[in-house]
Amino acid sequence: MSQSISVENLRAWYGDHLTLKGITMELEANRATAIIGPSGCGKSTFIRCLNRLHETIPHGRVSGSIKLGDEDLYRMDPVDVRRVVGMVFQKANPFPTMSIFENVALGLRIGGVRSKAEIIERVEKSLRMAALWDEVKDRLREPATALSGGQQQRLCIARALAIEPEVLLMDEPTSALDPGSTLRVEELVQALKSSYTIVIVTHNMQQAARVADKTAFFLNGELIEYADTAIIFTKPSDKRTEDYVTGRFG
Ligand SMILES: Nc1ncnc2c1ncn2[C@@H]1O[C@H](COP(=O)(O)OP(=O)(O)OP(=O)(O)O)[C@@H](O)[C@H]1O
């Protein structure tokens, strides 16, 4: 069972530049939430706060609170946070010198799994969850870079799932993919959301409409509107949301 994330009055800075201006929202467990908004509105910054990556950026700073269930993320060890909050980036970033198998196994080994049989089993399970197993089962020792872009992205998803996170953050996971691979990743999000809390940043409004249960519209570092996806796209209550989703700006 995954856990919800409660964000309260989250502010984030790059040096003196206040980028998130007090975000309060609840990201529900076992749901996919889309974050939409024009370029530069703070979507990536927001999800990078959710796994404490923002503070690793020079001069990156946050205030406010983020809780996973009852636990304050900012009181946890950041390494533990990144174990329970997995992330997939815009551009697939497999470890280029490692095999397909090792890309998924590495996190398990770092996490202290010693049994070879268990590692083999969990690698297979993760690759199956990422809908990649059938395509790679006979080539597990080949370098990850031998895979297509869409396969590499699913490999990164398998790598994130292997360590059994509760939350999966996805930062424009399909923007570098062709339509076929995009569809496969979207199907994957649909299938995974019953087990994880998924937060997906996307520029693609059809994608948000297809995969997300709830959608949050950000503008200039503020959360303008947050509601069921169908409401955001058909009956938004804020004029700025309506202008954005109907393509009037952004
Ligand atoms: N490393 C950084 N150093 C300084 N400022 C940054 C850095 N990263 C982002 N910013 C600034 O923070 C603001 C929000 O950026 P962010 O990347 O979160 O937006 P975004 O909504 O994800 O944009 P996009 O859709 O273009 O990816 C922007 O004004 C951006 O210039």
TrEMBL record:
Keywords: ATP-binding, Nucleotide-binding, Transport. The keyword Oxidoreductase does not apply. GO terms for cellular component: membrane. InterPro entries: AAA+_ATPase, ABC_transporter-like_ATP-bd, ABC_transporter-like_CS, P-loop_NTPase, PstB-like. Gene3D superfamilies: P-loop containing nucleotide triphosphate hydrolases. GO terms for molecular function: ATP binding; ATP hydrolysis activity; phosphate transmembrane transporter activity. It comes from the Bacteria. The keyword Transport applies. CDD domains: ABC_PstB_phosphate_transporter. One of its GO terms (biological process) is phosphate ion transmembrane transport. Residues 5-245 form the ABC transporter domain. It holds the Pfam family ABC_tran. PANTHER family: ABC TRANSPORTER I FAMILY MEMBER 17. This is Phosphate transport system ATP-binding protein.
